[in-house]
């Protein structure tokens, strides 16, 4: 929701916090990747994208957001 509201910096902080509790969360890695891209943090975004792709490689769902619905 924060990303949709244009609050990428806040979204980044929330995703980092969630990843402390759930280090391999594909949902949070995807959201963090999107937040970092929105903030033009390209090197960090690329590193997180690689982590996301590794964590999501066996998933049968394609993510377009880090949340369901809304």
Protein described:
Helix 2 runs antiparallel to helix 3. The chain has a domain of 48 residues. The radius of gyration is 11 Å and the shape is globular. The protein is 59% helix and 0% strand. The chain is mostly helical and 70 residues long.
Strand segment count: 0
Describe the global form: globular
- Estimated radius of gyration: 11 Å
- Strand and helix order: HHH
Strand content: under 5%
Largest sheet: none
Structural class: mainly alpha
Number of helices: 3
Mean pLDDT: 91
Low-confidence stretches: none
Blueprint (SSEs and pairs):
Blueprint: H1 8-21, H2 26-38, H3 42-55
List keywords for this structure.
globular, mainly alpha, 70 residues
Offer a concise description of the structure.
By secondary structure, the protein is mainly α. It has three helices and no strands. The mean pLDDT is 91.
